Amino acid sequence: MATPRLLTEEEIQSSITIGAEPPIEVGSILEGTEKVKDPFTEGQKRDAGFALRMERALKIIDELEASGFNPVNAKDYAVDKGPFIPEIIEGIALSPKYKQYSRAKIDFATAQLRRETGAVINASEIDWIDLTYFPLFGDDEKTLQQKSEARKAAYIAMKTNAGKAYDVAIKSLKDYEEQGDATPNITPEVATQELIERAKTDPELRIILKQRGIL
User: Fold this and answer.
1) How open is the CA angle 167-188-165, to the nearest 5 degrees?
2) In Å, how far are 57, 79, 171, 177 from 181, measured between CA atoms?
3) What number of CA atoms fall less than 13 Å from residue 121's CA on the CB side?
């Protein structure tokens, strides 16, 4: 089949012969350039990003706990919660695993709270997150197990709210990481924004992102 192109009125009239290919209508939209309707709502795409953040945070948390790390061990807990310890001293004294755990906890918490409040997160909400999802000094084994299950339930609920938008976000992020441009701490939002920027000068990528509902 010939490559589609726009014809002049004269060419259209002269091309109406037996066996000739149907002419391209003047002013018509060429195949592959039509606007594709976004299959996902803004809420689904937002929840997909939150679910990805929660999934990555849970992976780090589970790996640290499986290694035997206790996030409320006496040394780290005392340094972190000590009222008179300067922040610069905390950064030096806290163990690497404690800092990794805390970073993952914050990522999980902010994703969950942004979904529920959609506003600036205050101190009382962070306290609520700790009481609901994460170990506190003095928690018994049953409470720790319930908090672990609550974290997984919150992630599953977020993923379910996102629907197929979550699968699209996962695929886009993996494609981006396979190009070798991702950093270990890259977020889904950063990956998506990078793809959108590249699509400005890459028509084929732009079409793919439209089909996936990202544009």
Assistant:
1) 25
2) 21, 36, 15, 6
3) 16
Cα gap 162→48, rounded to integer Å: 5
Q: pLDDT tens digit string along 31-63?
A: 454 555 667 888 888 888 889 999 999 999 999
Q: 193-202 in b/e burial notation, b at 16+ Cβ within 10 A? A: ebbeeebeee
Is the full-model pTM beyond 0.90? no
Q: How many CB atoms are closer than 10 A to CB 3? A: 5
Sign of CA pseudo-dihedral 120, 124, 130, 136: positive
Best CA proximity match to 80, nearest among 101, 64, 107: 101
Q: Which residues contact 151 (CB under 8 A, 6 or more apart)?
A: 58, 61, 108, 133, 134
Q: Within a domain: residue 10?
A: no
156 located within any domain:
yes
Higher pLDDT, 170 or 54: 54
Residue 202 one-letter amino acid = D
> How far is C-alpha 59 from the geometric centre of its chain's CA atoms?
14
- Residue-level pLDDT at 168: 85
Which residues constitute the domain of residue 97?
Answer: 42-162
The C-alpha torsion from 176 through 178 and 179 to 184, rounded to 10°, is: 70
Same domain, 85 and 187: no
